[in-house]
Amino acid sequence: MRRIISFIVAAAALLPLCVTVSAQDIADTLASTTITAEGKPSAAKSTAPVQSLTVAELGKLGIGDITRAVNTFAGVQIRDYGGIGGVKTVSIRSLGGQHTAVSYDGVTISNAQNGQIDIGRFNLENVQMLSLNIGADDNIFRSARSYASAGVLNITTRKPDYSDKRFHAGVGLKAASFLTFNPSLYFDAAIGKNWSLGLNADYLHTNGDYPFTVHNGTETTTYRRLNSDVNTVRAEANVFGDLGRSGSLSLKGSFMWSERGLPGAVILYVQDPTERLWDRLSFAQARYENHWGIWSFQAQAKFSNDFTRYSDKKAIYPGGEKLNIYTQNEYYLSAVVRVSPLKGLSISLAQDVAVNTLDANLERFVYPLRVTSLTALAAQYHISFFTATASVLGTYVHDKVKVGEAQGDKWRFTPCISLSFEALPWLRIRAMYQDLFRTPTFNELYYTSMGNTKLKPELARQVNLGLTIAASPLPEVLSWLEFTADGYFNSVRDKIVCRPTMFLWSTFNMGKVNIGGLDLSLSTRWRLPHLMGIEFGGHYSFQHAVDVTDKEEKTYGHQIPYTPRHSGNVSLVFSTPWINLSYMMTAVGERYSWPQNTAANRLDPYMEHTIALYHNFEWRRCSLLVQGECINLANAQYEVIHNYPMPGRTWQLTLKFKY
Amino acid sequence: MKKFLFFAAVAVALAACQKNPGPEPGPDPEPLPSSPEQVWVLHNGTWGGSDSEIMIYDRESGNVLTSAFQTVNGKRLGDTANDMIACGELVAIAATGSKCVWIVYKNVTEVAQIVVTGADGTALSPRRLAYDGSYVYITLQEGVLARASAATGWQAETLEVGPAPEGLLYDNGLLYVVNSDEYSSPMGMNASISIVDAAQFKVVKTVPCNCNAQQLYRVSEDKFYLMSWGNYADIPAALTVFNPKTYTLTDVAGVAPTFFAVGTGNKAYYASREYDAAWNPTITYCNFDTSADSRIGEFVPASAVKPDINAIGLDPETSNVWMGCSDYMSNGSIIVFSPEGQEQMRIKDTGAVNPQAFLFL
Fold first, then answer.
1. Which residues contact B253 (CB under 8 A, 6 or more apart)?
2. Less crowded by CB within 10 Å, the N or C end of chain B?
3. HSE-up of A289 (CA within 13 Å, CB side)?
4. Is A508 on the interface with B (CB under 8 A)?
5. What is the pLDDT of residues A214-248, one digit of tens each?
6. Is A349:B215 a contact under the CB 8 Å cutoff?
7. Which chain A positions have a beta carbon within 8 Å of B306's beta carbon?
8. Which residues does chain A have within 8 Å of residue B143's beta carbon, measured at their own beta carbons?
9. How do residues A337-387 score in pLDDT, each as one tens digit?
10. If you compute the radius of gyration of chain B from its CA atoms, what whole number of angstroms results?
């Protein structure tokens, strides 16, 4: 570990030696970026909502972390517990984080313990493209697991282009308020004619002790967040092989270690957070792909090991400390075959098998093991003005425990169908229906004293009807315009909730939620004289997400927690040959922190403004990006989760040198 | 360039227009109950929500004042309040999550905030309270009993007792501290009762008792009931007779209360909650004969108490049984039954989550 840290620090120290670039050189070498963007999915042509950001777009917007990038997507709520170390999970259209999958280079990441994926663990430095599919995905050449969610956040990592040089290297350094620094480096090299190797690593430290304001009745006090420090080391190695007629092979090994304080909720009259968390997450995955005429084949394999150590030092515990250790393993295999027997028609069959285990040092722990089989049969018909995609997913889950009784086997078929029709050359209409099935997590079923082995799976369905407009109405001025509008209705049955019963927390199937909503998004590109340009876009979301469990309850018809009725986002990029400016504004309406919508549970609306100035200096084969950023420019004091204050105004400086 | 400046100006203007949320608007002004005949209902609030509160019911007018603490004091009570007790003209309120005990007048005006600290200066977590006419006694989860009084400027004096103290009872110059041992693994196996001489403020006897013991209830000078909750797995909840003279413990067969309250005339009431494997609860509300140590029968049917019970209190004036009900998802409600089990009154929304304790003034 020390060697890794020393290497990163040494690389960061060399950075200033590499950045002596004259103004003339800059002027001479203003050229386009050499990064090759992978094919971006078309938001206008897709049969279900899809949004994406390429590395170039992320760069233009000046977005430096994945949470803020995902926040620009319509229909997404991020539960953010504040600060760099705070857990950040994604929920699509109020269906809950456990109905949203996160895919990393095509392999869906799982968490059998609690079903939540913390997107804060990913570093945007190595990302080539982020995309979010809601419901169906028009790509049917994919793993069965990716059909199992209401939406998939796809994280695609950088794949270097060796057309101009045989290797690439770069170092970067981010420094920000609250003693945050994040050195990073990467090295990519072509090995022979058909193979290449990519290595990247970064280290992140923050004290995270940002100030925040507490309003207690008529009193207002400012404190600093305590126990919010984070230390993280991430490293990844990739091997790509072009085997010619034998296909292509990619191998990936990833490792992350982190230690962080858990500041917890802000409690009135006392601040003494004592919890800490250590994570060690590692995985290795392989992907093979080949095409023979009308046939295509893809196979994936993955092993992951997640180790978590939780400590709470308090005098109430014997020995003064509570120490919980969890180890999760996953063994995963996936194969998919696709055939295109007729022009425009494709059929695919995907089969996944996963084995998940969980160990813990808890009293009366049951040591669960889960075998999951997923089979997806999909068909797609695509002609120039019409696309239809249909799939059915069969899920079978078998649990086994070492102690006590395991839940019985679960299986279900869940269909999905989506259509897109070109009504006019610039207008398409789309519709989508999807059934969903979420099996309870290990914690929900087996956690000591809290789990419930009789839980039923949570059922959900979503219906989407939308239109998309894509045009270049005035090529010399307004070179691109894309507008999408999607109305949807989602429902959740047998919602799994956890709540205290007298003196114990327990899990139940008890909720029914209906969600109706509208997502609007706009993207435009304007040309200006003197090589200047403007990109302006934004989204607006309306959600009516209400509890319809029991008319007799006080919560009936109330908006479910942490779901704003109105939210939106505006982004503007103004590019010039000299300097680029980006501005982003996120607005979130009032929300409630608890199922009953009372004044006491109301969270104030907020707006967050972020502004960035940057320029990419290029000199021969080198480039240097210099970016200054002010996040939360107006220093808004707000909470995403009740009593977890978010940071106020934050300054950030980024330097990235590339060869 | 002009356009650039224009957009920059718009961005800055938007930023400048951002309104920081100001202080919370106070609750709507409501008149404080004028009658001294009041029932206070303390609410836990939500865990970590710092939203504990007091509801006051005015017996004379029938008026209800919610959020009484904030209304009177202009600030919130704190997090996870668990107990309150009358101390002469004052009332003490323990806020476990906020690690403080409030002393207020009976018009709810703040007198003092007691913070008990350990040897390293960190604040300790108060759970239950008792009063001997001079001192307010406080059990603290960190294995400590503390006491404070107006005479000492509410400065706390501490005494080490057993692991994870919960219940506290003062009787005849002695304090009985119920040490639950709930944070050990395996939990509750070293539960005990620490008997403290109030005058000397010294532990004089420690009596081992049932797993995860919670609270003592006085019937007479030689008979207390001890309620214990077991380990929520293979050791069930239990009710035990404790003789404070001989220190003997005798199990009461067939009674496993989750909530217990002792009334007058050899009568007590309890709620018992048992779960099946799917965590479907079976709740029974029973009355109990303290002279025979046996269940009399069903007090009210489970269907009469919706949502689930979270607190029980006996009105010493009317002998009515007050039940605080909670589903934890919404504000609580109160149902008042006569000693015979007839519903007398219902308060549908108490203004806060989880009614936890009653105080009849």
1. none
2. N
3. 12
4. yes
5. 999 888 999 999 999 999 999 999 999 999 889 99
6. no
7. 552
8. 315-316
9. 999 999 999 999 999 999 999 999 988 889 999 999 999 999 999 998 999
10. 23
